[in-house]
Amino acid sequence: MTEEHENLRLELMTSVEVAKAVEGGIRTVIVPCGAVEQHGAHLPLSVDADHADHLGILLAKRIGQALVAPTIRVGCSSHHLEFSGTISLQEQTFEMVVRDYCTSLARHGFERILIFTAHVGNCPSLADMLPRLRSAVPPSCRVSAFTDSRAWLETWRDAVAEAGGEPVKVGGHADLAETSVMLDIHPDRVRPHAYQAGKLGLLSQSDLELMWREGLRAVSANGILGDPHGSTVAIGRHCIERIATLLIEGFARPDAD
Ligand SMILES: [Zn+2]
User: Fold this and answer.
1) What residues flank ion ligand 1 with Cβ within 5 A?
2) Could you tell me how far CA 240 lies from the centroid of its own chain?
3) Scanning 14, 168, 192, 227, which has its CA 20 to 30 A from the CA of 96?
């Protein structure tokens, strides 16, 4: 992340600069969400939060006239709690945090709040709270959230295939896609010597139900969905690119939820 992008981060601006930006017509703000949860033996707990940080800036640059709110780093990760280090917010807590972000930002004159999550486990909660977020802000402010976790995972699978990787290694968690993303944005945080295969392919509906009921370990003993072997910077870049486009197109739809 170079310094020229840092002027898009709301928290690094002064209050005077934010007021001027809004007055000057910058009325869109992006709220990235992440997670602090286990990502196998080869990636740190911060993967989803790091990824959200990176995507937030990329989206702001692409969309234009937009700032990036501080990433909500901790999310809903109860299904990862059996693994050491995972921190999880209850859904009500997560909703209160997101709602307070929205009402604060609306108060300062932002009229478009775009929420996304690099942790797909936050999607059900975000989709559920969206109507309440919308009624918490004045009508002049429009809140959108990208919550299509299936589209996210399918985009990763396609992106991996396009970049020459094996799509079966995409399971959505500490896999070929996510490890490649980290090789691109924070290579120093990846431990390639510790790569292990987890459960291959995308989870079936019954696997998903088992995971929500009994935790991730019930479907993958090592906590990995997919396989990180073969991860490359090129795959990571392509995944980031495709996901950025998916999010921008999602936010641009007139019925954007
Ligand atoms: Zn992740």
Assistant:
1) 47-48
2) 11
3) 14
Question: Given this model, what pLDDT does residue 111 score?
Answer: 98
Q: Give pTM, 2 decimals.
A: 0.95
* Sequence spans of domains, the chain: 3-252
CA distance linking residue 199 with residue 130, whole number of Å: 32
Look up the CATH number of domain 3-252. Answer: 3.40.50.10310
| C-alpha 195 to ligand 1 mean position (Å) | 15
Other residues' Cβ atoms within 10 Å of the Cβ of residue 195: 20
The pLDDT tens digits of the residues spanning 97-151 come to 999 999 999 999 999 999 999 999 999 999 999 999 999 999 999 999 999 999 9
Please tell me the distance between residue 112's alpha carbon and the centre of ligand 1 in angstroms. 27
Q: Are 37 and 51 in contact (CB under 8 A)?
A: no
